[in-house]
Design a protein that fits this description.
This protein is mainly α. Helices cover 48% and strands 5% of the residues. A hairpin with an 8-residue loop joins strand 5 (197-198) and strand 6. The mean pLDDT is 97.
Length: 271
């Protein structure tokens, strides 16, 4: 076992201890931290991504899509104190992996070697993260910019099996599944098997199931309305193993985009 793997596993165990406490399970928030740190990547100029941990700076932290993530960032500050030689960038990436794994999801390969930026000059522009009010073309615009294809877009969307929306953060409200701290394929089965109708409320357009307990966003419904996305929804709804395999690969890619070559070498050594 490589030295990096030993270190990574120890750090993930420490992270889980910060996310899962008697006060509750913050693993969904940990996934969101890693995701939003990574999802700013632009393959065209190499900017954004997990390398740099630029969400530490006001310019990126104040992007509306990152509302509430200061809670997740604060939770893992003590991990940096215990492992001072590890970059915050690596800790955030490992937070996403640890959270998926702790909630029952697949192993997520994460290499080490990201380097933290020392100022805000490398912060990506706001607006690069997905806008949940949009549809299929918007998803393609956001994820194609990062080098993903349609299958990977659907697989990554499956992370919505975790967590809930909060009106004071995104404007939306409610969970996608009945067990928002369990990573499985129920997001996809819910999309296909439940009837989704517009919710009548004072917030933005979102959809509810017949019970009124679960919700879907416009970008979620786009996955079954688009003829190229829908076959992958159908695949993952019937085959959780296929979903886990494809999610692991796509999420690992998301966390690695824009990182130094040393991160990929570290990940290969851990395999």
């Amino acid at each position: 076992m490589s030295a990096d793997k030993v270190t990574a596993e120890a750090v993930k165990e420490e992270i889980v201890g910060k996310l899962v406490t008697p006060a509750g399970n913050a693993c969904p928030l940990g996934v969101r931290l890693a995701w939003h740190s990574a999802g700013t990547y632009d393959k065209n100029d190499g900017t954004g991504g997990t390398n740099g941990a630029t969400m530490r700076y006001e310019m990126e932290a104040n992007d509306g899509a990152n509302a509430g993530l200061e809670k997740a960032r604060d939770m893992v500050v003590a991990v940096k104190t215990k492992y001072p030689d590890m970059s915050i960038s690596d800790i955030w990436a490992l937070t996403g992996a640890a959270a998926v794994e702790k909630t029952g999801g697949p192993k997520i390969p994460v290499g080490l070697g990201r380097v933290d930026q020392t100022d805000c000059t490398k912060c990506p522009p706001n607006g690069r993260l997905p806008d949940a009010t949009q549809g299929a073309q918007h998803l393609r615009d956001v994820f194609y910019r990062q080098g993903f294809n349609d299958q990977e877009i659907v697989a990554l969307s499956g992370a919505h099996t975790l967590g809930s929306c909060h009106k004071d953060r995104s404007g939306f409200e409610g969970p996608w599944t009945n067990d928002p701290t369990k990573f499985d394929n129920s997001y996809f089965t819910n999309l296909l098997e439940l009837e989704w109708t517009p919710r009548e409320w004072d917030g933005p357009l979102q959809y509810q199931d017949p019970s009124g307990e679960l919700m879907m966003l416009p970008t979620d419904l786009a996955l079954i309305q688009d003829e190229k996305f829908k076959p992958f929804v159908e695949l993952y709804a019937k085959d959780q193993e296929a979903f886990f395999k494809d999610f692991s690969a796509a999420f690992s890619k998301l966390l690695s985009n824009g990182c130094p070559a040393s991160v990929m070498k570290s990940m290969e050594a851990m395999a």
